[in-house]
Amino acid sequence: MNLFRKILFSAAIFSSIASGTAGAAGKIVIDGSTTVGPVAKALANFYTKATGVQVTVSESGSGNGAKSLINKTCDIATMSRSMKDKEEAAANSKGVKPVEHLVCLDGLSIVVHPSNRINALTRTQIRGIYMGKYTNWNQLGGSNSPIVIIQRESNSGTADSFKELVMGKDNPISKRAETQASNGSIKSRVATTPSAISYIGMGFVDDSVKSVLVDGVEADVKTVKNGTYPLHRPLFMYTNGNPTGAIKQFIDLPKTAEGKRIISETGFVNNY
Asked: Which alpha helices (DSSP H) does 71-209 contain, by range?
């Protein structure tokens, strides 16, 4: 952003802040999804440099982000799934009116160790792995090695997305599954475990892991945006009521040229 545009952007922000909002104290508090975390942090860094408004971003999981919004301990909850009916009911009981804002799109990437010779799996096969029907990679054309199943913790929106998009309602995940607390910890575990498999947001995929094709489709910008990648999903931010002032300016960043650039650079997919 050049200096002239930066000055105009800052002036617009501070004019909005003057109107009096939750962000009027010069600080915005964000909590929630570890998937949305990199996008939120990158937007926060840009926003703070442009305006001087401090933005703090915590990554405690989508479920905890919803709780923070309900308990009024954050201004914005980041979530990698839509808010559940029970969460909206809890919010309403405390006078909180959750409003959903689309940030960007994501492809839920199925990842294995780079040395794994498996390059593609069907959703049926992935479901079978997580249900415990397949326990060795040689059952799927891979090497003779036990499959290490890794999942996310229960308050994870990514775990909910995986259950919805892959497992279905009546297919429980095997008790052999290991649990990790974040996209980052899953990536590290898979990167150091040759027989592991798990799922992470596409923005976290790098050379330390291998993303396999799902139903013959690769997760990339084009397939996520047009919906042909079967494990595509939206990522959200939630506010208490319709945002105004500084919070609205922050929420609207993904619609701007700078916001779109930031989202692309973090490895996710613009939807505006």
From this structure: 85-93, 123-131, 157-162, 183-191
In angstroms, rounded to a whole number, what is the distance separating the alpha carbons of residues 98 and 91?
A: 7
Of 114, 151, 113, nearest to 132 (Cα)? 151
| pLDDT higher than threshold 80 for residue 138 | yes
Identical fold between 3-104+234-265 and 106-225: yes
The CATH number of 3-104+234-265 is: 3.40.190.10
Evaluate whether 51 touches 258 at the Cβ level (below 8 Å): no
CATH class for the domain made up of 106-225? alpha beta
Q: What pLDDT is stored for residue 26 in this prediction?
A: 78
* Residue spans per domain, the chain: 3-104+234-265, 106-225
Dihedral through CA 55, CA 60, CA 64, CA 68, nearest 10? Answer: -20
User: In angstroms, rounded to a whole number, what is the distance separating the alpha carbons of residues 69 and 29?
Assistant: 10
Beta strands in 89-187 (DSSP E): 98-112, 120-121, 148-152, 178-180
pTM: 0.87
Long-range CB contacts (< 8 A, 24+ apart) of 230-233? 230/123, 230/165, 231/107, 231/108, 231/109, 231/110, 231/123, 231/161, 231/165, 231/166, 231/199, 232/105, 232/106, 232/107, 232/108, 233/80, 233/81, 233/105, 233/106, 233/107, 233/108, 233/161, 233/165
Query: What pLDDT score does 25 carry?
Result: 59
